[in-house]
User: What shape does this take?
Amino acid sequence: MSADTKQYVSWFRHSSPYINAYRGKVFVILLPGEALAHDNFHNIAHDITLLNSLGVKLVLVHGARPQIDQALKAAGLKTNLKDEPTGKIHRPLRITDIDSLSHIKKVVGQMRVDIEAMFSMGLINSPMHGADINICGGNFVVAKPYGIQNGVDYALTGEIRKVNSEAILAQLASNNIVLLSNLGYSATGEVFNLASEEVAVETAIALNADKLLIYSKESGILDKEGIAFNKLSAEQAQKLIEEKSGLDGTDEALKNLQLGVKACLATVSRSQVISYVDDGALLTELFTRDGVGTLITQENYEQIRAACIEDIGGIIDLILPLEQEGTLVHRSREKLEGEIQHFAVIEREGMVIACAALFPHGDESAELACLATHSEYRNNSYGKVIFEYIEELAKSQKITKLFVLTTKSPHWFLEKGFTEGSVDSLPTEKKNLYNYQRNSKVLEKKL
Assistant: This one.
């Protein structure tokens, strides 16, 4: 087996928990007009097709802003863009008169046909062979006039009154992909031009979607050095919004932050910003532990908690390499099962990435043992986090002295306030079990 094949097999195996977790879940995907115009869109379509094949319920919301700009310019009409807050999200809204709306409907209609054609492909030896995807749309978004704001009449520009979630869910239950545009409909039979971003976020909220996936030119939300944030809590994202508050609605990062926060503060579990430029960004974001974009969530991305019996396999995977190199003393599965109530773990996306154990003794002392961090996360302070958790747990149990036996990491513990002790200072039962052949250093810390 070649190295590439082994790498593929490994990736495929590690993706299985995500495949199981996503089956039957509802994802809303925002595809701005720029994404549809990009050369990478056919790859994005292939990735969306794969999600559908894996049982994910998909709603696609497409924008058309650059295509509309081009059509209006060709017709000799003004684009008439104004920066206005819609639902506390700044958007460059278009003043839509009757002539403009006529061209907008043509553009959106043409784009819809092209998208449907893209998802109808099924050539042999293509990623979409045998997919048999059904795309459906309809008057699922009820709109009303945006009205007059700051003395400006926005005419046939609208805002969302209601998303018909029941009708959309019925289509999703039939395994159809629902396609929405920037057009909404009123009870009086009018058509309104909407912001596609608002359609996406309001639809995600109405459906209680599991994810709102936002395609962007950049690979997520970038920091000052141009590196994408891997994850942001809704609170952290809100602080970034405040920092960018002086920017207008044309700032892509600001818009996407506002969308993500609005969704997460409502009913959507997670919002994720990914690049439409990078091939495979959708699959990498969804099926690898660290992804390639920016995750915005209300949930704790990493969870530190008491271990349970279901964590045994993850703990074994974590400590086995350290046992093999002699850093940790071997613990059998049976022994771990008997000791699991003493362990704490840090879980990240269903994977145990750090663990530690606290074994109290009768003299108000306790042993800190089996502290381990996954090799991929040893530079991210998770060892310090779980140590502090164990330390606070010891204090809550009226432990006055913490001790540890180590052969490899004495300096790490010294930096955490431990001092060198001796075998004689150990509790009697621990002293009787001391392995002089390992010659572990004894370190102590008063709490």
The domain at 303-446 is CATH 3.40.630.30 (Aminopeptidase).
